[in-house]
Design goal:
The chain has 243 residues and is an alpha/beta fold. It contains ten helices and eight strands. β1, α1 and β2 form a beta-alpha-beta unit. It binds ligand LIBGGCMN. Ligand LIBGGCMN binds next to β5, α3, α9 and α10. It holds the Pfam family ECH_1.
Length: 243
Amino acid sequence: MKMRNPPVNSLSLEFLTELLISLEKLESDKAFHAIILTSDCPGIFSAGLDLMEMCGRDPTHYAEYWKAVQELWLRFYLSHLVVISAINGVNAAGGCLLALSCDYRVLADNPKYAMGLNETLLGIIAPFWFKDTLVNTVGHRTAERALQLGLLFPPAEALQVGMVDKVVPEDQVLSAARSELAQWLAIPGHARQLTKSLMRKPTADRLLKERDADIQNFVRFISRDAIQKALRVYLEKLKQKKT
Ligand SMILES: CCCCC/C=C\CCCC/C=C/C(=O)SCCNC(=O)CCNC(=O)[C@H](O)C(C)(C)COP(=O)(O)OP(=O)(O)OC[C@H]1O[C@@H](n2cnc3c(N)ncnc32)[C@H](O)[C@@H]1OP(=O)(O)O
């Protein structure tokens, strides 16, 4: 699955919906057993959630958007398919969450390709299920520091803290993902799938039980004047970079 939403693969409502439909199609076709998730945007895996969806819109839109973000995470996190990410670019916040929801992560060795949950740098907060997904991957202490400081880890550090499983030269990222896949596909499917569910269901259940409350929290939080202002300032900084 090659993500293509130029220029930065931001996860707009439309793009989230496309990803969800593609995933559902693959999951319902018995011929498919695995996905390699990668990007078609040079140097960028994903810039995360689309800030334009969270800025200057009305509460109904925020609720619709957040429901789609929840849906995509639940679907990826609990997918019965083997999902491996071949991370071939910088990967921020919501994009990093997608990669963390995969079963295995290969990252291209380029110092520009940092990844992490950098929400605090924008003046916003990673929701509890983003946090839980990171804790499940790197452990509590590393996650606490990474989340508070909004750290984006370059490849060597991402590997060292366990945010990714392998770092390879840029031209080998897809072949490395394919080689890894062979090991996962050699395991009897039902045993692997049930084990994945055993490991992940408690984390997913937390959101499933509180989905509506989580949407309401998001809408309340993102609608605040101070948060809207912080997001506008951040977007402005991104644009000013060019001048
Ligand atoms: C108490 C209860 C709490 C409940 C929860 C509440 C809160 C909210 C949780 C929300 C969780 C949020 C998750 C997220 O994912 S937020 C997004 C975080 N993403 C980032 O910080 C990345 C921002 N982007 C960049 O750093 C760079 O763009 C880059 C990815 C490194 C690529 O750099 P470069 O190649 O130089 O491209 P440009 O910066 O020039 O960008 C090209 C155009 O794309 C626009 N852009 C970039 N990122 C985004 C984005 N995420 N959304 C929308 N648009 C984006 C950028 O402005 C440029 O636009 P222009 O061409 O019109 O100038």
